[in-house]
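RESIDUES AND SHAPES:
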Amino acid sequence: MPAGIAEAPGAPLGDADEAARVRSGASRGTAPAVLERLASDPSVTVRAAVALNPATPPTADEILAADTDERVRVLLARKLATSVPLLGASDQARLCEQAYQTLMNLVADEAVRVRATIAEMIKDLPNVPPALVLRLARDATSVVSVPILRFSPLLESEDLLALLADPPHSGTASTIARRAFVPAAVAEELIRKESRTAFFSHSATCQPASLGAATRYSPRSSPPSTASMAARAGPEAAGERVSRASQSASMAGRSVASVMRLSIGLAVKAAGAARPCDPPSALSTQGDARWWRAAGAKAGARLAPPGFL
């Protein structure tokens, strides 16, 4: 027994320093009565040492299970969950009598870390109390229940079917489907559940495009109909662009001819010659060239039809 730690059940612990109390709480040779008193020590470090001590009596574990510090409860949960597969048959019976209720209290702990620690430690163990496994499998928090749902060998077909009928969370079916072995009845239920889910999801998200066409109101254009209308309108738009280009060229040609006629008229007027008749509307080459030469002679300038400029 470390110096400063009283062995008598009623001896005060205030005279011992914290380091000595920590050593006493972690020692397997410490008397059970002392460990029980250290479980209520003001120092969280001392209580954590007692929680980790395999020799801590069940009465002290019950005190630690209600500790106000979550870290102490997590350490206690890890110790109790780890000690289960290391016990013999007689020790298993003793555990069920002395520490089973403490472990069940920790499984119902409000802190997710405490419950998740137990689930992770016992997820693939074949010799843990089935009620403990079922309690964790029905946990609504996925980080707690998923390890049990996927790996625990203690979940029978009836348990899995009951979990599928009343899933604790949305990922229950997908987690059970990833188990290494899925019984035939469970596999059939998974298929039926997936088929129903896929059917309702498809019905809720898909709607035939022809439903709106049967109503008296004009439906909103769907992407396929809009694309088809654009495809049908495409050639017409292209032809329209060509027609507009031709019209622009024709208008430009008429403007050039008008400018040429006006220029010739002004030149003839400036020379005092009689105004000749209007030039031909078409851009000719031979027959109309004579007119351009005559107009140029009267205007005192050498003119040529627009095609020869």
Summary: The mean pLDDT is 73.
